[in-house]
Specification:
Elements lengths: L3 H7 L5 E7 L11 E7 L3 H10 L6 E4 L5 E3 L4 E7 L7 E3 L5 E4 L4 H10 L2 E2 L11 H7 L2 E2 L2 E2 L4 E8 L4 E4 L5 E3 L2 E3 L4 E8 L2 E2 L2 H18 L19 H7 L6 E2 L2 E3 L7 E3 L5 H19 L8 E3 L8
Parallel strand pairs: 2-5, 3-5, 4-20
Antiparallel strand pairs: 1-2, 6-7, 7-15, 8-16, 9-10, 11-12, 11-15, 13-14, 17-18, 18-19
Helix pairs in contact: 3-5
Length: 306
């Protein structure tokens, strides 16, 4: 029987295909099991060719920098598609809009805009992920949100077909986006205002300094673990529950920012998930508030036979 890799190569795929890939190398918690198959496309056309080569029932997981992802220790069945620095084109269109592919890190978008005297995207420097991930969850930082800038998106489906869609075709909320089923973001057009690029760069430096002062950037983490409940802050509720510094295995609620769970060096995904669930239960018990995770938890909890 022909393997998925052989089928893809026969179909003309140019990107890199790995099997039994350690997912701890591809997420910011530096924990988790292995992926059956891991694909990094050469470019957008190569991605389309690869998708066409897959069986229609192949399980897919799309990732960028893996900064909002917890992969369980049993790993990922199916195929992981990694777009980070693969779908990496970014250009200023004649219309004045900025066209960005999904694999471009958000911090690069912020700098690109500032260097071209475009303002309003400074907050993107504080999002530790790619544009594709920011689109998928309406990522935000320092009061800004991704979809406030979006004027058009490009999606791809399992058949490799591209679609151009407008924001009106999506339900966009706080850290949530719902759109047509079976499609994934591969790019977007952003609209920003002309302004003072030097001042924009100063703002970015200030935001990054603020992040370094208030967040445990020296430890592997996924950023904020929980969404802020309406009218309150998850960090305040977690700290008020006496959970700062609380640990399970190698996972710890950060002493610096209570809405961060950090890997102190040897945390398993099970440690991190157990701590996340403990924090959620304690805040509910003490304050009657159910925290909603921002992080996406994927994979199996125990190693399965292949």
């Amino acid at each position: 029987m022909i393997s998925l890799v052989e089928q893809a190569l026969i179909g003309g795929v140019r990107g890199e295909i790995r099997q039994d890939e350690p997912m701890a190398h591809h997420n910011s918690w530096r924990a988790g099991g292995r992926a059956d198959q891991f694909f990094m496309p050469a470019d957008l056309e190569d991605l389309r060719v690869f998708l066409k080569s897959l069986p229609p029932d192949e399980e897919l997981l799309w990732i960028g920098l893996g900064s909002n992802l917890l992969v369980r220790d049993g790993g990922i069945r199916g195929t992981v598609i990694c777009t980070c620095n693969r779908l990496k084109r970014m250009s200023l269109l004649d219309s004045g809009r900025l066209e960005v592919q999904a694999g471009v890190p958000c911090a690069h978008v912020a700098k690109f805009c500032a260097d071209r005297d475009l303002i309003g995207g400074e907050f993107l420097a504080g999002i530790p992920g790619t544009m594709g991930g920011a689109l998928a969850m309406n990522a935000g930082a320092f009061g800004g949100e991704t979809w406030r800038l979006v004027r058009e998106v490009t999606t791809v489906n399992r058949s490799g077909e591209l679609r151009q869609r407008t924001p009106g075709e999506f339900e966009v909320g706080y850290r949530s986006v719902r759109g047509p089923a079976g499609e994934w973001f591969v790019g977007c057009q952003l609209e920003l205002e002309k302004g003072d690029g030097a001042e924009s760069r100063n703002q970015i430096r200030g935001l990054l300094a603020r992040r370094s002062e208030t967040q445990p950037t020296q430890w592997p983490s996924c950023g904020s673990v929980f969404r802020n409940p309406e009218g309150d802050f998850s960090a305040r509720l977690i700290e008020a529950s006496g959970l700062k510094g609380y640990s399970i295995g190698g996972a710890q609620v950060s002493e610096k920012h209570a809405n961060f769970i950090v890997n102190t060096g040897n945390a398993s995904a099970a440690d991190i998930e157990a701590l996340l669930l403990h924090v959620k239960a304690e805040v509910l018990r003490r304050h009657g508030v159910e925290l909603i995770p921002e992080v996406k938890i994927v994979g199996t909890a125990v190693e399965e036979s292949r």
